[in-house]
Design brief:
The complex is a heterodimer of chains A (496) and B (235). By secondary structure, chain A is mainly α. Chain A is built from 21 helices and 2 strands. In chain A, α2 runs antiparallel to α4, α7 crosses α10 and α14 crosses α21. Chain B starts with a helix and ends with a helix. The chains are: A mainly alpha (496), B mainly alpha (235).
């Protein structure tokens, strides 16, 4: 218990120290090194916390925080993404400054916002009080909007505004849901509470009708954060306009916060009599998101938008997986949690590759991308491998969880299985068509090849992609026992 | 819980708040939009004060003071200055709904909220009093009306007013339902003020002077399909 309190404080102390050093540092290298250091220290602290016997520990810091396996798992994924994104960002941002996409004066704001975002996310995952979680999730919106808007383009301001307005508007609805839960517990216990651990212990006595209403309100807010249709409008534009490392973080971590919030609320609601209704509600929104995303993907001509819509589709699938938990067994939750990680890794590698393409052609639109194999063979191959991984081909880490969740779907109703398979067919077709068109796009007679100076993507940009893809395929064939234990513990802790 | 003359006073305030929300949906003049918002925040603050007099809860007093300082004085003045600098007098562009249809839509929303809350009456103790039920319904309806403003107007500044209206609705709703712990109240207000600032900074363009900003403003004054289409074509 005490050591966990120390860990909780460590996240803050290290974070604030890094922020302070960033403010006073002068060169890009120092700022970047600090941005690499912060996730490394979070990784170390979280891994150490995992070994602590006192886990899970609730009610730290006056009941506002909780450290359990799920929060540590999410922090670990987030820290890995931030680490690789920071490594990648060093050269990427220099490139952005070179093509006048970004001002050197904004470097400091960029790194302060990046480190602030990691802190906000880490504490959001550690929040026990749902209102505190809400505030930290809003903070993460604010930081990431700053990161989107830093490029010198009016379109970025538009994308960031859309992002802030849609997510904040929906998050207000989530707050209404929280007020309902608070009132309900006030009636029941005498003093209202929003502590997740308390709510879990009294969940079965809560009024199902009010909890269902509260669930719908909170769902609207958290679904907007994770880009679920019809609250997804911000996602493709923000993802495609943001700098590549930020797109990767948006796709892997910000959307995870939304899903994480939904998991927590869902864990409470499944203990009431409304479990079937809520589960079908989730599956409905999940399938709807997948269908809309798949159909939009087919007509995409913008590489980063295609990857962004793929995120919408994957978030939809995560909702389906979560919904299946209430209808069949907790097996779906195990694989859904694994899928969160696999998706985050594959998606980041795709955005990193798209970043190389972006700096080569100063655009990610299909008609501008020519002779990729000649100019950027590494990016071409990493896009192919990443594309193969994201559509869930065997050997990729996406494959096994996908099959396992599909099996659960088939057990509930075969119609769902067939529907999901059809959507996957469309998604794979969209990726296939786009990649084939883009990679075979050549300009035979124009001297374009000579004119375009090849952008030199250094090891700083390539290594993160290699690490991510290697991890994805390693996890596809080899499943470490520690990971199985961790995921099993999370499932038990969530009470399924 | 609340004595009769107080109750009718509270009811009048609730109806006035609903009326201000309707005015915000209808108004095209930027200056009066901001003034209406200030008036609405003032009404919510008075309501919080009224509850403080009745129950003596200190967090209600704190809420009223925060509202008076930030939402009646600072935010409207700040937005007024932004509006003068940008020289936007009127917001006459709408999408999806014209103001009249938006108003009709919000009438249906109020009905819908009322009907969907009706079955929940038995579940919550507080709802048994008609005043609390009315307040909660109007609170949620105000949230939806603010949302309509966000989706039907094209000016970023009007969108911010819409967002702030939604926020007032949430606070109104929580006033009638429960007393949130003080700490959370403070954090919410801080968070919301920060978001307003961010939205305004974004609307200004990050560090540009006003002239530069106008060049930037033009492409995104209308965050609508047109820009989206242009986006697809040019880029």
């Amino acid at each position: 218990m005490d050591s966990l309190l120390v860990i909780l404080a460590l996240y803050a102390v290290i974070g604030v120290a890094v922020l302070a050093f960033t403010v006073f540092s002068k060169t890009h290298q120092t700022m970047n090194a600090l941005a690499v250091g912060l996730p490394v220290s979070y990784l170390v602290v979280s891994l150490y916390a995992l070994t602590d016997a006192a886990l899970p520990s609730y009610g730290l810091g006056g009941g506002y925080f909780l450290v359990d396996h799920l929060s540590l798992y999410e922090i670990l994924i987030t820290a890995v993404l931030f680490l690789l994104a920071a490594l990648y960002a060093c050269q990427y941002i220099e490139g952005s400054i070179e093509i006048h996409e970004m001002d050197r004066n904004n470097l400091k704001i960029f790194y302060v916002a990046l480190n602030g975002l990691l802190m906000a996310l880490a504490y959001a995952f550690l929040a026990d009080n749902l209102a505190l979680f809400w505030i930290l999730a809003e903070l993460s919106t604010a930081f990431s909007a700053v990161l989107v808007v830093l490029l010198n383009a009016p379109k970025n301001i538009g994308a960031a505004l859309k992002y802030v307005f849609i997510t904040s508007t929906c998050m207000l609805f989530a707050f209404i849901g929280l007020i309902l839960i608070f009132t309900l517990t006030e009636d029941l216990l005498g003093a209202g509470t929003l502590n997740w651990s308390t709510l879990m212990s009294i969940a079965s006595t809560l009024s199902p009708a009010i909890m269902f209403a509260a669930f719908i309100f909170t769902f609207v807010g958290f679904a907007a954060k994770s880009g679920i249709v019809p609250f997804h409008a911000w996602l493709p534009s923000a993802h495609s306009k943001a700098p590549a490392p930020i797109s990767a973080i948006l796709s892997g971590s910000i959307t995870s916060v939304g899903i994480y919030g939904i998991i927590r609320i869902y864990a409470i609601v499944t203990q009431t009599a409304e479990v079937a209704k809520v589960s079908w509600f989730l599956i409905g929104f999940g399938v709807f998101s997948m269908v809309v995303a798949a159909l939009t993907m087919l007509s995409q001509v913008n590489l980063k938008k295609l990857i962004g819509y793929s995120t919408v589709e994957n978030m939809g699938f995560l909702l389906v997986g979560l919904g299946l938990v209430g209808l069949s067994t907790s097996v779906a939750l195990f694989w859904m949690l694994f899928y969160v990680m696999a998706h985050a890794f594959v998606k980041s590698s795709l955005f990193f590759s798209a970043g190389i393409i972006h700096h080569q052609y100063e655009s990610v639109r299909m008609e501008r991308i020519k002779n990729v194999f000649k100019l950027q063979p590494f990016a071409a191959w990493s896009l192919i491998v990443g594309g193969v991984a994201i559509i869930g081909m065997p050997l990729s880490a996406i494959f096994i969880p996908k099959v396992m969740i599909l099996l659960q779907a088939a057990a509930v109703t075969p119609a769902l299985l067939i529907g999901l398979l059809t959507v996957f067919l469309f998604v794979s077709a969209a990726f296939g068509i786009f990649l084939v068109k883009m990679l075979t796009h050549k300009d035979q007679d124009a001297p374009a090849v000579g004119e375009l100076k090849p952008f030199h993507a250094g090891w700083g940009m390539k290594i993160p992609i290699v690490i991510l893809l290697a991890a994805v395929f390693a996890l596809g064939v080899f499943f470490p026992q520690q990971l199985t234990d961790l995921l099993n513990t999370i499932v038990t802790e969530l009470g399924f | 819980m609340i004595v009769a003359p107080m109750q009718s006073f509270a009811e009048i305030l609730i109806v006035l708040i609903l009326a201000t929300a309707a005015i915000i949906i209808m108004k095209r003049d930027m200056g009066s939009l901001i003034k209406t918002y200030a008036a609405q925040s003032f009404l919510v603050a008075v309501l919080a004060l009224l509850f403080f007099v009745e129950t003596g809860g200190l967090s209600l007093l704190a809420l009223a003071i925060i509202f008076l300082v930030s939402k009646v004085l600072i935010i409207p003045r700040f937005m007024g200055r932004v509006q003068k600098k940008l020289n936007i007098k009127r917001d006459v562009q709408f999408h999806f709904l014209s103001p009249i249809t938006a108003l009709i839509a919000s009438v249906f929303i109020i009905l819908f909220v009322y009907l969907s809350f009706a079955p929940l009456i038995a579940e919550l103790n507080r709802f048994n009093s008609s005043l609390f039920f009315l307040g909660a319904t109007v609170g949620i309806s105000t949230v939806f009306m603010g949302m309509i403003v966000i989706f039907t107007r094209k000016q970023t500044l009007t969108n911010i007013v819409g967002y702030l209206t939604m926020e007032n609705g949430v606070v109104l709703f929580s006033l009638f339902l429960t007393e949130l712990p003080l700490l959370i109240e403070f954090l919410i207000i801080i968070d919301l003020i920060m978001l307003t600032l961010i939205a305004t900074i974004l609307a200004f363009g990050i560090d540009s002077t006003i002239e530069e900003f106008h060049a930037r403003l033009n492409p995104f004054t209308s965050l609508n399909k047109e820009t989206e289409r242009k986006d697809e074509e040019e880029d």
